[in-house]
UniProtKB/TrEMBL annotation:
It comes from Ceyx cyanopectus (Indigo-banded kingfisher). InterPro entries: Pmp4 (IPR019531). The gene is Pxmp4. This is PXMP4 protein. It comes from the Eukaryota. It holds the Pfam family Tim17. One of its GO terms (cellular component) is peroxisomal membrane. The lineage of its organism: Eukaryota, Metazoa, Chordata, Craniata, Vertebrata.
Amino acid sequence: ASDGGDALRALVRAANTLLQQHRYRAALAVLKGFRNGAVYGAKIRAPHALVMTFLFKSGSLREKLKSIAQATYAHSRNLAYFVFTYKGLMALQSRLQGKKIPFHSFFAACIGGWLVFGENNPINSQIIMYLLSRILFGLSRLAVEKGYIPQPKQDPFPLVAALIWGTVLWLFEYHRQTLQPSLQSSMTYLYDDSNVWHDVYDFLIYNKRTDSK
């Protein structure tokens, strides 16, 4: 047991020594990026998948748990692969050109996005839509900072909120098929299911009356 403990401590010391080597820093940063992508993806997706699955999906407990595990794994894997690809290409471009320039980031992320998130599936679609909304806000702020558009005299957020909600409810009421399935489910629960009841049970306690009622 003592020999095993000594070997483990020696291995840890060797690993720590390797991690302090500056010449391997770029490669090690890529590996840690892969690790952080996997962990963060799981932390983000697991609670979301848990809530959405138990709220809106039917099926047995085993099927629901399997769905949660699959969604969590897919998000964790994709984010890990993307970070690995992005940081690897960033390091390669910087090494080839001898310096880091803004285009490197855009190019590396484009390649990573194409390779990792290019498949049109529910998880990737949700991630892309999440990023798109942040990009639109970010580009708007950048345009103001750079002077491309004037600084608003009043906070434009109330108008943006009004237009966003107006548009999404118009789409839901008249062009529902254009919205993401999970958003359709949420809005159906809020706006359609609240129009139907039979007694106090499915008015206050349950959303829908079961067949036994």
